[in-house]
Amino acid sequence: MDYLQISDEVRRALSQKEAVVALESTVITHGLPHPTNLKTALAIETAVRAANAVPATIALMDGKILVGLSEQELTSLAACVTAIKVSVRDIAGVIMKKKTGGTTVAATMAAAMMANIRVFATGGIGGVHRDSVFDISADLPMLAKTPMLVICSGAKSILDLPATREYLETQAIPVIGFQTDALPAFFSSDSGLRVDYRLDEPGEIASFARTHWALGFSSAVLVTVPPPKDKALDSAEIDQAITGALEVAKREKITGSAVTPFLLKKVNEATQTKSMAVNTALLENNARIAGEIAVSLSKLVI
Ligand code: PSU
Ligand code: MN
Fold first, then answer.
1. Do 153 and 227 meet the contact criterion of CB atoms below 8 Å apart?
2. Which atom of ligand 1 is found nearest the CA of 87?
3. For labelling, which of 20, 36, 124, 143 has a CA lying 20 to 30 Å from the CA of 151?
4. Would the pLDDT of 133 be above 80?
5. Does ligand 1 lie within 6 Å of residue 102's CB atom?
6. Ligand 1 lined by 137 (C-beta under 6 Å)
7. What torsion do the CA atoms of 261, 134, 256, 223 make, to the nearest 10 degrees?
8. Is 64 considered catalytic here?
9. Which atom of ligand 1 is nearest to the CA of 261?
10. Among positive and negative, which fits the CA dihedral 199, 281, 120, 300?
């Protein structure tokens, strides 16, 4: 497809049926400050490689969807202050205008499917927002219709987590806990909600996905990984920052796609280094586990 530009390394790995892990880029353009964003993006790629898989960071540049970025492209994306947050509805427009964009979970899944990548690692997915019936991230309906293994640490409690959990259930998206029974809440390891299945080995997760898709189901399989123990925060620690961020967002009448980046920025500011440390640590950890799952999946026929 004309709009898709797959890097040589990713193309080679895919043609040899080797393990590839898609990575999102809104976390680079809107989730973390410069230069932590670049450092983290590189560390995430290194973590995927450590598991013997090939990283494919996805972003929009110069009228193309790039799948697999060079270090130079990553560096320029991380420094681009005008980068647009690109969800699925924005892809065509950003391609048309040849703008630079960081892809959300939803848009990254869409692009990864175009490239035939089936494993994707991220930090936190979007979800149902609090006090706002119709502010539901496009990540959720994309998870419902995209057969992909998505490895994350749940969602942040800036969202309505019980409603998000219900949405996943309604859309028949299996939620797996990697070595846990509790659904993580990004910064903390337990949201108080449950996963559907606990699986402890990457190979079991790959088999689960293969079975799910072999049965004809076409949803994602959502794999949730708790943040590394030494970095996880107490939910009480983070709650105050979140309540504050939600109040400011309401006062300043933040709407649309600006809501999530605004809340993330405010929470980061309020908790400073602590939340940043857990954020970067879980991104790397999820990337490594996704790499292991991708290696297992590459050995199964799907
Ligand atoms: N949650 C985070 N960090 C992030 C995001 C969510 O903890 O960077 C980003 C992801 O790219 C996600 C997007 O797909 O925000 C969701 O935005 P929205 O709620 O506008 O769909
Ligand atoms: Mn929204």
1. yes
2. 21
3. 36
4. no
5. no
6. yes
7. 30
8. no
9. 15
10. negative
Ligand nearest the Cα of residue 27 is: 1
* pLDDT digit string, tens, across residues 272-295: 778 899 999 999 999 999 999 999
Q: Is 252 exposed, middle or buried (0-12, 13-18, 19+ CB in 10 A)?
A: exposed
256 CA distance to ligand 2 middle (Å): 5
Hey, is 2 helix, strand or coil? Answer: coil
Amino acid at 302: I
Q: Which are the contacts of 158, defined by CB distance < 8 A and separation ≥ 6?
A: 129, 130, 242, 245, 246, 260, 263, 264, 267
Burial (CB < 10 A; 0-12, 13-18, 19+), residue 231, is middle
From the CB of 104, is ligand 1 less than 6 Å away? Answer: yes
Helices 36-50 and 273-298 cross at an angle (nearest 10°) of 30
Single pTM value for the model: 0.97
The rounded percent of the chain whose pLDDT value lies above 90 is 91
Q: Is the CB of 103 under 6 A from ligand 1?
A: no
268 pLDDT above the threshold of 70: yes
Residue 156 CA to ligand 1 center (angstroms) comes to 9
Among the listed residues 108, 101, 138, the one whose alpha carbon sits nearest the alpha carbon of residue 256: 138
Q: What angle do CA 171, 91, 279 make, to 5 degrees?
A: 65
Q: 45-78, pLDDT tens digit by residue?
A: 999 999 999 999 999 999 999 999 999 999 999 9
Centroid of ligand 1 to alpha carbon of 187 (angstroms):
14
